[in-house]
Amino acid sequence: MPKYYYYYKNEHKVVMEDDAAEFDYNKHDKKDHCDKHDKKHDKKEHCDKHDKKDHKKESSKLVEFAYETSDPITELPLPLTFPLSTQPQVIATATLKDVEKGNVVWLNGLYHVNNNSPEFADVFTRIYRGNISPANLIYQSIVEVDAEGNDDATESVTQFVDVVPTDAKNVTYYLTAQKGPFSDDLSVFAYGPITFTAAEIKQ
């Protein structure tokens, strides 16, 4: 029995070697593997180039930037030189020289406000495009400022994206502040630091 098993094993080995002589499995497998590897590599390289092209096509570009800053350093006591009324008062402006329809303008504003009154006050922050008129109002926020002795000094932060409606030259954006209609008799003041920026971006 052991001899028969040994003979069968050798015979099987001979058969396998004879088959291998007729067809080089190692060579075939290697070529097939290389073909698959090359196809996979070519596909990956094509996809990488395609992705990079699409990414480049979809990236945005800064076209123009304008800004205004004032009073970057504030000291105590808080300044009372900019009293607010119930009418829009210009805090800062930013002018873009040449805007293109379809572009967007990223607007960022910052100023501070102090309420020296015994009751809370409403403060309106607005942005106008072109000139200060109701038809050109593009942004408005309302902040309630506590009475004196509480949280009566705070900051007003504005962020807005304006889609340019038409090609234009020298477009000015106005950042304004004012007291609410029911705060007319209150003593409310704006102060720095003040920053207003406008960045035109082509998509």
From TrEMBL:
Q: Basic and acidic residues: which segments have biased composition?
A: 28-37, 44-54
What is the protein name given in its UniProt record?
Uncharacterized protein
State the residue spans of region: Disordered: 28-54
